[in-house]
Specification:
InterPro entries: Flavin_Rdtase-like_dom, NADH-dep_flavin_reductase, Split_barrel_FMN-bd. By secondary structure, the chain is α+β, with helices and mostly antiparallel strands. The chain has 3 helices and 12 strands. About 15% of the residues lie in helices and about 45% in strands.
Length: about 160
Amino acid sequence: MEDRLFRNAMGSFSTGVTVIVTETNEGTHGMTANAFMSQSLEPRLIIISLKEDAHMLNKINESGFFSVNILSEEQQDLSMIFAGQVKSAKKVEFDYLDGKPVISGAIAQITCTVKSEYVEGDHTIFIGHVTEVHLEGGEPLIFSKGKYRRLEKAGVTANSD
């Protein structure tokens, strides 16, 4: 099977867009990722997956913590900045939740300590123990088939027979 066929098939699955953030002695670091999911309610665990050559991998190993920031539909510019798709002259400001850096205005901010990690294929899977959550209003930024998308509000009508 060709790599492009596999990538296109995986890209058919629409996801939210997150920015993973951590902090080391060298400063605050972030990267855009859509490989994120909840794993367990008790205990509260989430999963992120990072490619083996991602700079963020060493940063999380150094810090032992990270935050997952689910971006709003108004934050596409931040997604592109942290994905390295655009350079920005503006400095990204971070808030703090539970002593960990988070993206201001994200519709959900989830802070975690690293519980465990597993190397599988060309990625490292981090299991994060959730330490705090903050929610904001707004609609999520969506990524599907290589493009940013927005949710369309569906009208629901009741059939009155």
